[in-house]
């Protein structure tokens, strides 16, 4: 049961308590149950849901996964042609409606092993890969995340990003499962997020690091009180030093959680950073295994590597997805005798997972393998650096050369200072050969770093980037 059985329980026990808030619009537990139940009889076997954040989204999603139904959530920001292509592909891979058993007309969960969610990898120019998840895999994920993050019924969670993104969709469903109040915005807006923190009693944030930095820095400048926030869950990339410092000053009582996971694997490892606890800057550590997760580092032949050896991060847990409906090239999700990997590279040291990055991001320069993540974490530890991005630029001699760009935290910064700052942190053959300064980070529409966009800015002499001498 992903969450519908729990939703029925909360609606019976606390009918008039608030379940979901979207941009100030409130929906009670009984209201959510009744409105979703009214949609179930007309809900198809597979629903394609592509909407911006709204109360209607939460209601439609609940109805779309009732019985043995499945739901595919598409980003409404994707081009219409892409969304239509995905819907067509889903229709092709869906069972023949005449051969599908009745899914029922009530708001109840289907069998634990049945698929209920069609997940899509992000994409803007080609049809993304699609994978499926079972109800049992999400229940296992809920139990693990609630234990790890310490979610309680009295918590009020704000996830200010789009519900079409898996981070926020999961946060919504997790709160419905736990009986905790969930808040979001029509679209991400710093002022609206601050208003929710100030006036709605928010105790928990779920967001990506770029959003956390904006909320923290502008919250400090504007005197927004975030002392009531008890936990901040960040995903998408490791917290850099500036974001961590700003978040700790703005929300002094919050435990900051960062974790590693993948859409196909769910949660893998994580770390909790209690208020005031010192953190090693420039590190690649991303915590210890989540509850119910085993981690091994395997080479491409499936052989386990010793402690400290770099290889494929492989996991074994009940939270792994069922696999792909389409788009599987044999490398996106691999299995070695029950150990699954999406190709992310890392190593274990004393039980702690260290994340190096995607194999596809790896830079081969003069025969040396360099992961941009290593370079970025090293540069982020240099005083005066707010954020860093590294990439591989074409080079006739080396194949590719490592280049890096930084957003200064204040004033200016020089290439000499950057080189000196990473001397004791990064091996010589992994250090950048060119340095640039940025006025802003190269981000996708979902707030993730785009290394290709960085390279495009360099090639186009974009005004947002300049070379450091």
Give a verbal description of the structure.
The longest helix is centred in the first third of the chain and has 15 residues, at 135-149. The chain has 3 domains: 4-280, Rossmann fold (3-Layer(aba) Sandwich), CATH 3.40.50.12780; 281-359, Luciferase, Domain 3 (Luciferase, domain 3); 362-467, GMP Synthetase, Chain A, domain 3 (2-Layer Sandwich). The chain is globular and about 65 Å long. Helix 1 (4-13) crosses helix 2, helix 2 (29-39) crosses helix 3 and helix 8 crosses helix 9. Mean pLDDT is 90; it is low at 97-101. It has 12 helices and 26 strands. The protein has helices spanning 4-13, 29-39, 55-64, 80-93, 135-149, 166-178, 190-199, 209-222, 241-250, 372-380, 415-421, 451-459; strands spanning 18-22, 25-28, 46-49, 70-73, 115-120, 130-134, 156-158, 181-184, 204-207, 231-234, 255-262, 266-273, 288-289, 294-298, 311-316, 323-326, 334-336, 339-341, 344-349, 352-358, 363-365, 368-370, 385-395, 399-408, 434-438, 465-467. By secondary structure, the protein is α/β, with parallel strands linked by helices. It has a 9-stranded mixed sheet with strand order 2-1-8-7-9-10-11-12-13, sandwiched between helices. Strands 3-4-5-6-16 form a 5-stranded mixed sheet, with helices on both faces. A 4-stranded antiparallel sheet has the order 14-15-19-20.
């Amino acid at each position: 049961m992903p969450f519908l059985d729990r939703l029925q329980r909360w609606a019976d026990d606390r009918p008039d308590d608030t379940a979901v808030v979207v941009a100030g619009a409130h929906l009670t537990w009984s209201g959510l149950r009744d409105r979703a139940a009214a949609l179930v009889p007309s809900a198809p076997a597979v629903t394609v849901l592509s909407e911006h954040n709204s109360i209607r989204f939460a209601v439609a999603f609940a109805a779309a996964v009732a019985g043995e139904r499945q739901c595919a959530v598409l980003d409404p920001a994707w081009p219409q042609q892409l969304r239509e292509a995905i819907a067509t592909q889903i229709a092709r891979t869906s069972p023949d409606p005449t051969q599908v058993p009745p899914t029922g007309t009530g708001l109840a969960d289907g069998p634990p092993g049945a698929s209920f969610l069609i997940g899509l990898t992000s994409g803007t120019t080609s049809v993304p890969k699609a994978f499926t998840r079972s109800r049992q895999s999400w229940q296992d994920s809920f139990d693990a995340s609630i234990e790890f993050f310490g979610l309680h019924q009295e918590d009020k969670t704000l996830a200010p990003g789009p519900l079409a993104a898996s981070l926020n969709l999961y946060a919504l469903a997790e709160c419905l499962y736990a009986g905790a109040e969930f808040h979001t915005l029509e679209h991400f807006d710093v002022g609206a997020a601050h208003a929710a923190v100030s006036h709605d009693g928010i105790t928990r944030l779920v967001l990506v690091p770029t959003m956390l930095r904006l909320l923290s820095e502008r919250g400090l400048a504007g005197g927004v009180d975030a002392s009531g926030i008890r936990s901040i869950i960040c995903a998408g990339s490791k917290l850099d030093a500036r974001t961590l410092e700003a978040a700790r000053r703005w929300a002094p009582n919050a435990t900051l959680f960062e974790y590693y996971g993948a859409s196909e694997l769910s949660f893998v490892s994580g770390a909790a950073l209690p208020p005031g606890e010192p953190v090693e800057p420039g590190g690649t550590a991303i915590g210890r295994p989540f509850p119910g997760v085993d981690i091994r580092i395997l080479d491409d032949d499936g052989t386990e590597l010793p402690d400290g050896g770099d290889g494929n991060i492989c996991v074994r847990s009940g939270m792994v997805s069922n696999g792909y409906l389409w788009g599987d090239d044999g490398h996106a999700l691999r299995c070695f005798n029950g150990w699954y990997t999406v190709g992310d590279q890392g190593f274990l040291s004393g039980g702690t997972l260290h994340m190096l990055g995607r194999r596809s991001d790896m830079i081969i320069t003069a025969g040396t393998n360099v992961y941009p993540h290593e370079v970025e974490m090293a540069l982020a530890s240099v005083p005066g650096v707010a954020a860093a991005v590294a990439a591989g630029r074409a080079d006739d001699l080396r194949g590719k050369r490592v280049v890096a760009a930084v957003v200064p935290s204040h004033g200016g910064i020089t290439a000499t200072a950057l080189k000196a700052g990473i001397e004791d942190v990064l091996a010589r053959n992994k250090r950048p050969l060119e340095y640039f300064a940025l006025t802003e980070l190269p981000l996708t529409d979902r707030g993730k770093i785009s290394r290709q966009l960085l390279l495009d800015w360099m090639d186009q002499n974009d005004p947002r980037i300049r070379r450091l001498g």
